[in-house]
C-alpha cells in the first residue's frame, strides 16, 4: 500500500528519519512501534502528506505522494489521532463534514460499523465519553469511505475496556478489507492487533516483518524488556 524509498526527514538540522526503506502491505494491520521520539508519528504523517520527506519518496499504491493532491489523498486515506477531535455540534454534524452528500442511513451504518448506537446521531459530540468520541471519530473517517486508515496511538487516552473494544473493532474492519498503519508504543497492544510490524529506533528502521521477529532485534532489548511503554 505504502512504499518508503530511502526516506530521510530532517527537522531543525536533526535527523528524524534516516534512510527508511519499507513496504506496508495493503491488508491487515501494520503496527509501527518504537521508543518515544523514534520517529513513529513522523512516518505515519508522511503517508497523508501532513509531513513530507526531506529526501526520498513515499508512494501510495504505486503513485508518488508528492504528485497527489493532499486533500484528495486525505479523503482516500483517513486518519485517527491520539485524542478524539470531534467538531462542535451533533454527531450528525460531524459526519456531514466527512460526507456532505450522506444521509441518515449512511450515517447510521457508519456509527454501527464503529460500534456506536445510531441513536447517537442527535447527541452533542461534546457530551460523548472518551471511548465514544474516539469511535465517533472513527465513524467520521469511515463514512468518507476511505480506502485505508492511519491511526496515531488512537487508544492512548482510553481505559482498558474501551481500548480493547476499539482494538476489536479495528481488527474486524481490517479483516473486512480496510488496511491500517497503526502507531503504538505498547507492546501488549501490538501483540493483540499486529499482522506486521515496522520498528523504529532513533529514526532508523530496525525491523520490518512479523511481530514474533521483534524478539531478535538487539536495538529493542531495553524497550521490549520495559514492555514497550517507554
Ligand atoms: N517539526 C519538527 N521540528 C523539530 N523536531 C521535530 C519535528 N517533528 C518531529 N521532531 C522530532 O523528531 C523526533 C521524532 O518525533 P516523532 O513525533 O515522529 O516521534 P514518535 O516516535 O512518534 O514519538 P512519541 O512516541 O513520543 O510520540 C522527536 O525527537 C521530535 O522532537
From TrEMBL:
The keyword Transport applies. GO terms for molecular function: ATP binding; ATP hydrolysis activity. Gene3D superfamilies: P-loop containing nucleotide triphosphate hydrolases. InterPro entries: AAA+_ATPase (IPR003593), ABC_transporter-like_ATP-bd (IPR003439), ABC_transporter-like_CS (IPR017871), P-loop_NTPase (IPR027417). It comes from the Bacteria. Residues 2-227 form the ABC transporter domain. Coiled coil: none annotated. It holds the Pfam family ABC_tran. Keywords: ATP-binding, Nucleotide-binding, Translocase, Transport. SMART domains: AAA (SM00382). PROSITE patterns: ABC_TRANSPORTER_1, ABC_TRANSPORTER_2. PANTHER family: ABC TRANSPORTER I FAMILY MEMBER 17. This is ATP-binding cassette domain-containing protein.
Amino acid at each position: 500500500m505504502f512504499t518508503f524509498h530511502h526516506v530521510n526527514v530532517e527537522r531543525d538540522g536533526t535527523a528524524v528519519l534516516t534512510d527508511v526503506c519499507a513496504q506496508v502491505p495493503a491488508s491487515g494491520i501494520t503496527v509501527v512501534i518504537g521508543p518515544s521520539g523514534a520517529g513513529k508519528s513522523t512516518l505515519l504523517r508522511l503517508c497523508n502528506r501532513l509531513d513530507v520527506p526531506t529526501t526520498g519518496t513515499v508512494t501510495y499504491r504505486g503513485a508518488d505522494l508528492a504528485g497527489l493532491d493532499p486533500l484528495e489523498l486525505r479523503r482516500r486515506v483517513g486518519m485517527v489521532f491520539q485524542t478524539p477531535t470531534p467538531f462542535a455540534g451533533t454527531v450528525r454534524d460531524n459526519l456531514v463534514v466527512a460526507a456532505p452528500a450522506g444521509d441518515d442511513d449512511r450515517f447510521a451504518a457508519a456509527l454501527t460499523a464503529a460500534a456506536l448506537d445510531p441513536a447517537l446521531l442527535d447527541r452533542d459530540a461534546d457530551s460523548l465519553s472518551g471511548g465514544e468520541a474516539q469511535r465517533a471519530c472513527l465513524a467520521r473517517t469511515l463514512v468518507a469511505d476511505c480506502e485505508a486508515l492511519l491511526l496515531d496511538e488512537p487508544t492512548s487516552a482510553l481505559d482498558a475496556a474501551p481500548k480493547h473494544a476499539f482494538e476489536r473493532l479495528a481488527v474486524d474492519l481490517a479483516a473486512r478489507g480496510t488496511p491500517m498503519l497503526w502507531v503504538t508504543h505498547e507492546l501488549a497492544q501490538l501483540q493483540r492487533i499486529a499482522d506486521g510490524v515496522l520498528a523504529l529506533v532513533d529514526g532508523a528502521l530496525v525491523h520490518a516483518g512479523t511481530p514474533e521477529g521483534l524478539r531478535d532485534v538487539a536495538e529493542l532489548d531495553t524497550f521490549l524488556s520495559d514492555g514497550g511503554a517507554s
